[in-house]
Predict the 3D structure of the following.
Amino acid sequence: LLLLCLLSTVLIAGVCYADTLTNGAYLMNDGNMEVRIDVNRLPDGKYFINAMGTDKSGKTCRIGDLAEVTGNKLVVGICQIDIVIGDKGIELKDSKACVQCDQGAYISGKYVKQ
């Protein structure tokens, strides 16, 4: 019974951790677009996200807003971006092109924690 309680605690903690971004920088460079996202967790559990990206032709994307992770969504202002949080970084998919980007620029991709 003790082992079962311990295992349950570890599993629950793992699920909670999966919805948590760690402070610091994340970088995506897919050969066309390079985006750096700086994440700062606030005391209330929300985040301040500051991101800037540029493609090879000079088109840009910009985020500077409060955010929170809800399920598999990164909610930034009015934008809901699909997010997968992994051990080495995150993957974002802005399927509705909600983030402020010049036409042709994007933030969707795999980001590596720096």
Observations:
- The longest strand covers residues 60-70.
- The beta strands are 24-29, 33-41, 47-55, 60-70, 73-76, 79-85, 89-93, 100-101, 109-113.
- The CA atoms of residues 54 and 60 lie 4 Å apart.
- Confidence is low (pLDDT under 50) at residues 1-17.
